[in-house]
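Reopening this one. Same input as before:
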Amino acid sequence: MLCHGYHSKLIYMLSRGRAGEKYGYRACLGRHTYKNGWELPYLPDEIVEDEVIKQWRLERLADAEAAQVRDGLLADLTQTTTAQATLLDGRIEAIPRQRRK
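Same output, byte for byte:
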């Protein structure tokens, strides 16, 4: 995502409040890091997510683009699922060893 003002990236940051609760927010990289004078305030992540969802509801992809996005997402999901399965298999194999200790 880009910040409209200076076309810098909108970065995600996670902070802790005074009571220790975590909250996410977005900030213009240009303002935050490069001190470029842009005055965009820090934005609560929930607001940004809602706006992104609204925008995507307006977008229309051509059939070929939709197929490309779908195939990419399915490939990512397969990789993630395979990696998680491998991790879980390792944990399952470790249980009997831990019980014998």
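So the earlier flakiness isn't reproducible anymore. For the record, The mean pLDDT is 87.
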